[in-house]
Every structure is written in C-alpha cells, then in structure tokens.
C-alpha cells in the first residue's frame, strides 16, 4: 500500500511539469500556431524561478516571474509568427536555442544551487484522509491542484462551452471563415500563443521550485519536446493533456522506483522510459484503433499563417 501511495505521489509531482507545459501548448495549437520553443521557454522559466526565489525568498513570486518571462518570450514569438507570418517551425526552433542558450549562460552562477524556498505541501482537510489517493494527491503543493484541477476544468469549459471558446476553435480550424464572421484572428492567436508560452515558463519554474528543486544546466532534459508530443496524444484537449502528463509522470515514477529497489533492469533503460512512452502512446493507439485518428486530429489550420487577402 505504501509503495502504491509513494508511486502515485511521485507520479503527480513528475507529471505536473509535463501537464502544465502541454496545457500551454494546447492553447497555442488550438488557435493554429505550432510553438516548438517549449523547451527554451521552460529553461528560461526554470532559471527565472530560481533567480527570483533567491532574491525574494518567495516561491509564489518566483513562479509569477517565470510566467511573466514566458509571456514576454511568447509575445515575441507571437509577433513573429502571427503578425509577421514568419515560419512557425523555424521560429520555434530559434526560441528553443535562444532560451536554452540564455539559461545556460545566465544560470552559471546558480548551477547546483538549491532553491532557498519551495512550494510546500498543503493537505486538504477530509480529502487528504482518503486511503491512497488522499495522501498521493490531496496532500500536495498548491501548483498540483492548479495543474490537475483548476486549469483543465476551467480551460475545458472556456474552450468547449462558451462562445469565446467557439471563436477560438474556429480560428484554429478555419481562420478565413472566422474572420468573415467578425472574429479577430490575429488578436486571438496572439493572445493564446502568449498565454501558452507563459504556462510553459511556469512549467519550468514548477520543475525547479516544486519538483527538483534546484537549477542545473540541462535540467529540462527534453521535457519540452515530450510536452509537445503529449498535445497530439491528448487530442488537443486541456483535460486530456493533464491526464497525459500524469500518465508520463507514472512512467517516470516507475523508473525511480525501479532504480531505488534494484530491479534487474539497466538504469539507462529505466531513464529512457518517458521517451519510449512518448513514441508508444502516439503510434500504438493509432495503429491499434483507427478511430483514434479522428480523436487525435489536429486543427485544420495548424501551422498555416493567415493572410486576410488570400481566400
């Protein structure tokens, strides 16, 4: 029983960073913009979180600072891809290279430094007493509740049950028709690309203020790329993105438990599990169940710049 509780506790913690970054990428891709700069945004967010908490001793301010940095970089990316119509893939790769490079250079003075303050667990009365799940989920830090409950539920309601959400999805599916209906395509795209980038920056801060918690070069370790892949597996839905992050958190937790308990499996293979899972959970469902192709279909205008005078 303790093993299962510990496994789930680690799964929620490890999956939180992927879930938050994936939710942010869902926002961008739902309006038709592919942001491959998630890895760089997370690197800058992770460094910003450590730097801000070192200066203020407040993990909340560190997280907010990371959100702000992510939004700033996201706004630059949105300007290039939405307003200037630059190639989204190249801009995303440039953002990844720039973000990781800046974080590596600026973060040298913080390398190996543990966070002076972190997000502490907050047990929810009554719910935390539930066997297994209570200790694993309802005794976590506040960011866990934000990532797995507040954001998925709130964004799902916004996206699928409001007129604004319908406009948002229309921009990603058919921007010309949305424009003809009076919807500001560029405004909505700019807004949600920036918001998604802010969440990616926040995911980096979550990593260094709640999960690791310290900064070192390479701390992101490809999680940004996994988050982009999770968006496909999640069918571009915020709720499924959160659950997908939890699933990969469980895979990561299995690797930790296997190494700690000395399972007769090569440690390198256990470390590879999240990346193998990335491939498996995208390829296997589509092969095994053809209907998954429709469920995992991308927005029709994903990756395509919108020119108002071209119909």
List keywords for this structure.
mainly alpha; globular; ABC transporter involved in vitamin B12 uptake, BtuC
Task: Report on this structure.
By secondary structure, the chain is mostly helical. The protein has one domain: ABC transporter involved in vitamin B12 uptake, BtuC (Orthogonal Bundle). It contains 13 helices and no strands. Helix 6 (142-161) packs across helix 7 and helix 11 (238-260) packs antiparallel against helix 12 (267-288). The longest helix is centred in the N-terminal third of the chain and has 29 residues, at 2-30. It is globular.
CATH topology: ABC transporter involved in vitamin B12 uptake, BtuC
N/C terminus separation? 60 Å
- Please give the share of residues in helix: over 70%
Approximately what portion of the residues adopt beta-strand conformation?
under 5%
* Low-pLDDT runs: none
Q: Give the CATH architecture.
A: Orthogonal Bundle
Q: In brief, what are we looking at here?
A:
This protein has 13 helices and no strands. 71% of the residues lie in helices and 0% in strands.
């Amino acid at each position: 029983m303790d093993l299962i509780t510990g496994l789930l506790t680690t799964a929620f913690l490890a999956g939180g960073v992927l879930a938050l970054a994936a939710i942010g990428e869902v926002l961008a891709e739902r309006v038709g913009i592919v942001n491959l700069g998630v890895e760089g945004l997370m690197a800058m967010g992770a460094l910003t979180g450590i730097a801000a908490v070192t200066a203020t001793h407040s993990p909340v301010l560190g997280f907010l600072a990371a959100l702000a940095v992510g939004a700033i970089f996201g706004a630059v990316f949105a300007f290039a891809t939405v307003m200037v119509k630059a190639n989204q893939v190249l801009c995303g790769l440039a953002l990844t290279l720039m973000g990781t490079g800046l974080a590596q250079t600026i973060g040298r003075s913080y390398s190996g430094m543990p966070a002076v303050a972190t997000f502490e667990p907050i047990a929810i009365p009554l719910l935390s007493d539930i066997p297994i799940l209570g200790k694993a989920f309802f005794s976590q830090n506040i960011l866990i509740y934000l990532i797995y409950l507040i954001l998925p539920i709130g964004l799902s309601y916004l996206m699928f049950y409001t007129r604004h959400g319908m406009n948002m999805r229309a921009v990603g599916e058919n921007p010309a028709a949305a424009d003809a209906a009076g919807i500001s395509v560029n405004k909505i795209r700019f807004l949600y690309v920036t918001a998604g980038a802010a969440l990616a920056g926040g995911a980096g801060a979550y990593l260094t203020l709640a999960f690791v918690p310290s900064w070192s070069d390479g701390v992101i370790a490809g999680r940004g790329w996994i988050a982009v892949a999770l968006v496909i597996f999640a069918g571009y839905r915020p709720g499924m993105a959160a659950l997908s992050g939890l699933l990969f958190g469980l895979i990561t937790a299995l690797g930790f438990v296997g190494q700690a308990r000395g399972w007769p499996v090569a440690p390198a293979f256990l470390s590879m599990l999240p990346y193998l899972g990335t491939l498996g959970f995208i390829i296997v469902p589509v092969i095994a169940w053809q209907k998954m192709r429709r469920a995992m279909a991308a927005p029709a205008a994903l990756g395509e710049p919108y020119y108002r005078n071209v119909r």
